[in-house]
Amino acid sequence: MTGMVLAVGALALINLVYKGVGPAVLGDRRFPPRVQEMIDALPVALLAGLVIVNLLGERWAAVDVTVVPGLLAAAVAWWFRVPQLGCVAVAVAVSIAVRWL
Q1: Alpha carbons 58 and 1: distance in angstroms, whole number
Q2: Among 13, 53, 95, 96, which residue's CB has the most CB atoms within a 10 Å radius?
């Protein structure tokens, strides 16, 4: 769990630096469209990787099946356009309920 917290903190710091330094360096110029598409895809890919590693454990050896229903519940909540904090709350509640069973 500590690794996940450090990874999220590192990503937050990278995001802060990217958003702060980027405009200062680029000024009014824009990235080429292909580069911008890649940059836009990075957060989704990183988040998906973090979720998979957290779900499956190191070297995919420690699968935590109680998290799967929570992720599915969050996906369903997102599908119904529940705000992000609400999706997290739904996922936590479902995961807790599954672990109690």
Answers
A1: 11
A2: 95
Same domain, 44 and 17: yes
> 70 and 52: one domain?
no
| Domain extent at residue 91 | 65-101
Buried b or exposed e, range 52-64, using 16+ CB within 10 angstroms: eeebeeeeeeeee
CA distance 5 to 17: 18
Q: How many domains is the chain built from? A: 2
pLDDT digits (tens, 9 = 90+) for 37-91: 988 888 888 888 887 787 777 777 777 778 889 989 999 999 999 998 999 999 9
